[in-house]
Amino acid sequence: MAGSGKTNRGLERERRTVAAMIRIYCRDRHRTRGELCAECRRLHDYAMGRLDRCPFGEDKPTCAQCPVHCYQPALRERIREVMRYAGPRMLWRHPWLAICHLLEGRKPAPSSVPRKRQVASSEADRSE
User: Which helix H or strand E contains 4, and what residues bound it?
Assistant: First the structure.
């Protein structure tokens, strides 16, 4: 994705945050060590794909603030379960990511999807 360093840093931090939450959940709930279980690996891969296709790009709000529900309903419920469990634990295990995520959640979400990104996103979804 082309863009400013801020864009790459923000989305990269979001990727690290989601990945850390899934690792915490999988380690504690599925008793895994090191590797994710197959179910959590699928969720991780899906979440990373959704972040790659986010129509907001650098202006991406946190999922709770987002006006666009890009996850399939079953996977949306699954990631919400992961976030509800891992979110509070992030303060102990990944305090910097947790604080950044909390601060991002305080920013207002964009009111609409940028037109250019919206077209690119819909074309990417058709190619799946």
Answer: none
